[in-house]
Amino acid sequence: MNFEQLFQMQKALDKHIEEKHQLEHEDLVDRKILALLVELGELANETRCFKFWSVKPSSARETILEEFVDGIHFILSLGIECGFESISLNEIESLRADSVTDQFLQIYQAVNEFKIKRSLDCYLNLFNTYLLLADQLQFSANEIEAAYIQKNEVNYDRQQEGY
Q1: What whole-number distance in Å separates Cα of residue 127 and Cα of residue 84?
Q2: DSSP state, 32?
């Protein structure tokens, strides 16, 4: 994945949104953290990985991928907000959970740790833990990047339409 390109695209989108909504001087970290948690819940809901009481299958792969890249948007945005744009995700080795459900729980924990400390180490752990979920969901780096680029365009269109 070309993280430099994704960070640049996210930075441009964030700037556009912040200017349009007069938020240039606001600290948006807590709102972005909550947005990420909401997106995680939406993603988990689409996978249905925790719904032991239901026999209904998970949503279509494309739907799950779209929800996954929504999380990428907010993780990138949090990195930009905190000045962590030049990162190497190989700096921290995160542990892969035994199940998708457990991976979601590890991500929630990583988000909480990042919220408390706002450190580069916590950010890298969050991003790596999220990317481990992509691996468990069998999304390739190329698929994620392509879906991110497509969703980035949708997000710009939504801003033009008064979303």
Answers
A1: 11
A2: H
Per-residue pLDDT of the chain (163 residues; tens, 9 = 90+): 899 999 999 999 999 999 999 999 999 999 999 999 999 999 999 999 999 999 999 999 999 999 999 999 999 999 999 999 888 766 556 678 899 999 999 999 999 999 999 999 999 999 999 999 999 999 999 999 999 999 988 887 777 777 6
- Distance in angstroms (rounded) separating the CA atoms of residues 125 and 137: 18
Alpha-carbon gap, residue 102 to 17, rounded angstroms: 34
d(CA 20, CA 162): 10
Q: Which residues are CB-contacts of 117 (< 8 A; sequence separation ≥ 6)?
A: none
Q: Where are the alpha helices (DSSP H) in the chain?
A: 3-20, 29-47, 61-81, 100-117, 120-136, 141-160
Amino acid 146 reads A
